[in-house]
Amino acid sequence: MNKYLHLFLFIVALCCFVISASVLKTFRGLYKLRFEKNPSLQIRTAEQFNENFSYFPNISASAIPIDGLRLAYYLQDPRLRSEVKYLSTKATQANPYLGYSDFVLGRYYYSMGNIDSALYYSKKAFDLWPKSIDNYKMYNQSLAFKGDTLGILSAYESIEDIFRDRTKYGDMFIKYYAFAKVKYLIKNYPDESHIEYANLKGRWQQIHEYEDGKITYEDNFIEFDTSKDLAKFNDTSYFVAKSNDSLNLFSLSDRNYKITSLLVRFSDSLKTLTIKYDPKSNQPESFFKKVD
User: What angle do CA 236, 237, 242 make, to 5 degrees?
Assistant: First the structure.
């Protein structure tokens, strides 16, 4: 009898040890993900994420699904795209009320310039958990890019029914409602087409060109050195590689770490470069004219 009792206690102790070690590993990974300041120790790839996280527990202390965090890294690696749907489903099963995997997908598609998909997923996330300021912001960004002022008003009215004393939502409403209205005034470039990589060389300044012919210049610059495959956004430099109309930006400290992709087009008649995603301004569409 004592032998079986000892065996049972040993198995229980072993299970407790394995669970504790798994929890410790995940919580150390969460700390590194959020607070690590040393670039060489930061988690940048799906492989590094899996090295720092276990598969238990499946949610963080703030109820964010771990697979939702993992999903963001898998989206950045073309080799792992086949796992995206599976991870999204697992994240939703872990916490079906937060809409976190939909938020991650919306943010990813927005960064890639696919605004229709970004709007679809950000709306799903917002509808599931409108209390999340991140869900509200992502949904408003997508609506503003579409120029959907009625959608922005509707989202704010639904927030007002829940929060009447949160100024962040009001400030965000004003910002994106104004951006959506400006979308109707900014000039379109119907002859946008492919631009050769070598023709990007030089210094470009951000502009706003309006239908009445007025042009305003922003204190925001991009400089391309195509001979060295470098791009400088104001004071931040990246390695750059062009593939068709996509411009991929890589970290200077790790050329294999892709930060984002830009969709670049050029209007020959108006000599204007369009960037569908700009990491400096966090806007999905920016316009530049060459100054040097």
Answer: 130
